[in-house]
Amino acid sequence: MSDWTEEEFAAILKYNAVEPTADQIAEHTVGAEYTPIDWRTQTNFHGTICMTPIQDQGQCGSCWAFSTQLSLSSNLCIQADVIDVVEYSVQYLVDCVTSCYGCNGGSVSYACEYLKKH
Q1: Within a 13 Å sphere around the CA of 88, how many CA atoms are in the beta-carbon half?
Q2: Could you give the CA distance from residue 76 to residue 41 in angstroms, rounded to a whole number?
Q3: pTM (2 decimals)?
Q4: ∠ CA 47-90-106 to the nearest 5 degrees?
Q5: pLDDT in tens, 9-59
Q6: Residue 29: phi, psi to the nearest 5?
């Protein structure tokens, strides 16, 4: 049993949801002229669509490797303004990033660090 009153308990430990005001919401708005981008149709300078086809990891828990590979390929296409999308090997990451666990899981951060060094 606690020696707190119900009021003390509620004031200190209970979650008290506070709805944000319109001004607080406006502070976090991207901008009045925000326009969504459909990356499936967005092209770079050369007219290349920088999205790679959907891939299936099957029973392997290598979503971390797919995420790393797709991020790298898409960003290179957009930033370097290449003519063709370069698709890197997911299997290379699964096999070679020893700080991750292959088909048993891993981290995009660790995979990116590995790629920086190699």
Answers
A1: 20
A2: 17
A3: 0.65
A4: 125
A5: 777 766 666 677 777 666 666 556 667 788 888 888 888 888 888 889 999
A6: -80, 140
